[in-house]
Amino acid sequence: VGFSMANLGRSPERKLFWWSHMTAVVNEYRNKSVGLRLKMAQRSEALAAGIQEVRWTFDPLQALNAHFNIHKLGITVRTYEENVYGYSKSPLHWGLPTDRFVAEWQLDSARVNQRLGGEEHAMILRDFDRLVRINGPDRGPDSEPSLGLEESPLLLEIPNDIKRLKETDLDRAKICQDRIRAACQHYFKAGYAITDFILVDRPRIQALYVLER
Predict the structure, then answer these.
(1) Residue 37 burial (CB < 10 Å; 0-12/13-18/19+)?
(2) Peptide bond before 153: cis, by omega within 30 degrees of 0?
(3) Quick one: pLDDT at residue 122?
């Protein structure tokens, strides 16, 4: 009903890791925790082989993937790559450059063990309303990002449903991607990393990355 496949990689510092090339689940078994079970099996096999880190790419605009990867699995992100796979007519990727985050999954870190154990990031949730935003809370993810901030943590909003936005307003989707790209590249260079992802439904639906220095 699903599979996950990874290759052995080596960082510039000569550290071995697994590069998770693809994880997929057949349609009728989606939203039944099969993807999570596959990633848990991958984690167990990697640790048994002496591998401490798994990496992969994912679309920065896909809110549900971001929530799964960051909030549930506990990955961090500090790399933004532009148009990795070129332009595509695929139903998943059409209409926009294939920009990608690089996920870094430190398999046996305290952070990952806490997330897999169901522990929330209490400070982020408690202080949510007071956190500084990179893009405006009123206009949403297509607003001009503020690139001179120095607080930590920061919030960066993305579309809550990029597929629907592309179908209804492709120009606005492109603006969102351009501005989110600019914000991520700036703050990653300034020493920030994405450490969490928040979905809220009041006063409007919002999907937000949490960046910490």
Answers:
(1) middle
(2) yes
(3) 55
